[in-house]
Design goal:
This protein is α+β, with helices and mostly antiparallel strands. The protein contains 19 helices and 35 strands. Keywords: Cytoplasm, Elongation factor, GTP-binding, Nucleotide-binding, Protein biosynthesis.
Amino acid sequence: MNKRYYTIGMAGHIDHGKTTLTKALTNIDTDRLKEEKERNISIEPGFAPLFEDEQIQVSVVDVPGHERFIRQMIAGVAGIDLVVLVVAADEGVMPQTKEHLEILSFLGIKSGIVALTKIDRVEKDLYDIAREEITEELVGTVFEGAPIVLVDSLSGKGVEEVKTYITKTIGKQETTRIQGDFRLPIDQVFTVKGQGTVVRGTVYEGMVEEGETLHVLPLGLETRARQIQVHQKGAKMVYGGQRAAINLSTLAKNQIRRGDVLVKSPHFTVTKTVDVTLNLVQDLQYEVKQRMLVKVHTGTAEVIGKIVFFDRNDVMTTDEEIYCQLRLEEPIVTKRNDRFIVRRPTPSETIGGGEIIDPNGARYKFGEETIAKLKAKREGAPEERLLRVIQNWKVGSRDEILQKTSLSGDELDAVLCINDWITINGSQITHSSLVKQLYTYISNKLEDFHNKESMKYGIDKAELIQSLQPVWDKQLVEYVLSQGKDWKQDGPIISKDNFTPHVPSQWKKRSENSLLSLKESGRKVEPIEVYLVNEGIPKELQSSFIHFYREQKLIVQLEGSVCWHIEVFDHALKMLVDQTNETFSISEAKEILGLSRKYMIPFLECLDKKGFTFRDGGERRWKDESK
């Protein structure tokens, strides 16, 4: 789809003719509210179609000029591509002209046209002075050198010239707003009889089709685009850059408010802490102090928050960008590179604005180390941002990563095409360097375990995974374990591939002596611990030795501490097999082996457990394969 969509904004001081110029350009009166008609001022942003052909479609937003409606003004210009700065020839540059200009600069709007209106009301000398004043005011701003068009909206003088400048300027702009995931910051919510709840806004990016499932954030409400309108005309789809009204199913008007965001994918970040760069206005009236309460505007949202500095405690004036953080009282929906405005609640004053570096801000220490970290975050390319997140998380789902990195789906896909990225179980993403790091870590952990516990076969897999959490995700650990060529798994036990359990060298002779003593005791033995104690093996090591003997089949545990040497056990078993029939009694076994009940009963029960025999009434019967 090659068609491009743009929204331009009318900005400027109150009563300088923004609404009148909009009507002259579009033949639509954007002051639709009764109060607006009665007071002859704009209170809410108004919208109208301006121009459309096969290549482009241009809409106009007319924002309020009164200082009391700055919030509405900021909400209205959210997402515009070009601004027409309206200045009345009879008054020239006024306070709201300057404030709107500053706000537009902070919002990153780089294309502008100046409409010098009401020229029929003044002598030529006066509007020449106004033109010079505007030119001087624009020096050093992004609008320096913007064309200034002389206009009288009532007589129509200059209106077509303004329109020509708009279409000519906007036509040169490339737009990527159709790409990315659909996002529409809501600036109006209302109901239509028989239809239900309708929201309006300028589509920041992406596209949505009628009938698709949508989400209202930050509340997380699910809905559906029942119907779509663009300038009161039905549309099957709406694209980034267009002004749209969307009829939402299942949601009531009171569930949604201006500042909420309509999205197609719920992975957008909902946050109360954002890392930012802040630029201050030139002529602050009051000092900006550490942790000062401010109003933060981003998209169409306005929330109270605090400015947190990491390299200063106050500032009055600076031409430099300030790396800092905004901690908000309410959650907002935002992503990297979004713009924001900061205003003082009282006395009311625009402080500055800037760009969001990271919507997932954390707690940082005061100092240059944090400033360096924030600068690095800002400069990161998509792959660097993804790698930074993955290094912290180790692994993450696609939606989680999109939230944490503020990458678009297309940007993420482009990064994942690089060979170094790995997808686990079809959904979990990680980096090959982390897989190598974890592989080495597990290998070293097994090596350390074998050095400390050389008599054990290895580590229980569940215990190993638990010991690696929460630093390493369970899915990642299991993936790396499945890839390992340096280790083996026997049931639940994992060990190094070349490892064989053995007695530590310093205990080897004593261990051999204890086993020899046990063997020499025959079938009438002392508790196994006695033989270990006699050889000077410490109490804290005895359970490890017994476990090792049992696992290596050097002894057979009859009951508790009663253990026979394996050769003694095998000899006793052979004697019974050779000297009994298919069944035998306890008394027969006692006579053959010469044992008291103290050893006889545990030995026979051991035979049952090992599957050599089973009880048959008052006797024991050999299993077929044993006899």
